[in-house]
Amino acid sequence: MSELNQKALQRGVPLSIHLDVTYRCNERCEHCYLDHDGDGEMNTGEIKNLLDQLAAAGAFFLTISGGEPLIRPDCFEIIEYARQLRFNVKLKTNAILIRERQAKRLRELDVEQVQISVYSHRAEVHDGISKVPGSLKRTIAGIRFLKSHGLKVTIANVLMKGNLQDAEGVRQLAFEVGAHYTLDPTITPMMNGDPSLLRLRISSDSLRTVFQNSDLVGNVAEFCAPPPPVGEDALEGYPCSAGHTACYVSPRGEVYPCVQFPITCGNVREQEFFEIWQNSPQLQEVRGIRGKHLTTCSSCNHLGTCTRCPGLAYMEGNMRGPSTADCEKSFVRTGIVSAGMLAAAKTSPSALIQIRPYAG
Amino acid sequence: MSQIYISRSNAVAARELGGEMMIMSATDSTLFSLNETATIIWQAADGKTPLTEIVELRICREFDVEPEEAYRDAEELVQELARLGILMLSDQPVSNAQLEVMQRA
User: Which H or E run contains A2?
Assistant: First the structure.
């Protein structure tokens, strides 16, 4: 797969596209970074036209998401069209609307994978986060329908303060229903930059507990190993695939480097996709950034191994700067302070309170 | 010699990248990369054109190879791709309706 990415990178091909077909949703998850406004959504024809353009540009992996994508009556028509264009399709859904018929159809369309958010194995916790009574029961029923038709299902467990204690329960639930399990402690600001959701992020101590749990992270010693010396690869390399081989298209046709990188690069209602992909000044700026260009991170021990998200850095004010959340993750994971944390401590000494002896 | 007709499987995702066809099976998520000649055969796999004709018109003329040798290689290739679920083989031309049935089998 890395060979494929490398080939796409060399040829400037947008290999992976994340397409939100709607922001409307039948849940109101408390950590959701989207508004739920359906205004200005692309219609079926516009989306099919976009898919034609994406296929012509070489896009191969298509993630269809939302909002809740299945809330659109034409969602299966869109998926069918994407499969006719031979995209590898992954669907992100809460599965509330998936019953026998929908699962069968998704299997017939050879959707490669369905990713479903589950916040807890306990209804009171999951439903409390989704704000929809009965949602866990319906979601699990949807997962079972999908599995009965042989679809690959991934349960994505977003960790936050309200469900932290249930990570193991969700992992066991995934095992029981035959789904793959992933967990993600990343809570992002709203796409409009509103940081209020960050209050839901788990604490450093909790994150440390998660990172020390082999059931959740795999090989703890490997996962928490100190970073190797920063090499030329990291200094000359790209921070992530956003804008290089991947991009995001919103329901309103706006193109961004990534769903977590809210810098508008153009709109497919006004320009051809490939024209935006090739010529957008914003995308060109993102593409120009190498590890060595990062204002603080280029001198950080974690440069080669950090999960630094340029989108989160952008939302903090500088796409070349550190992302505080990822600095924290690198520190908690390895016990080694990041350059971003040291820089923050210089301007605000109270930030040093984050620096504690490594407990692992 | 009976003819071989080849059809692309609907169960895969595929995209050409730099002259090579990337193919991923939805069932096991395995990624395959077809070289230039295999890509030509994949693209010509309409279920209606015999493999001999594909080889003669699309491979031999393009690459200046002997038809017999090219056909032997092509036959080996399509058998392998059929085993991987990327192509479907038939000994007679396949109508669209028949193709639909084969895809669901």
Answer: helix A2-11
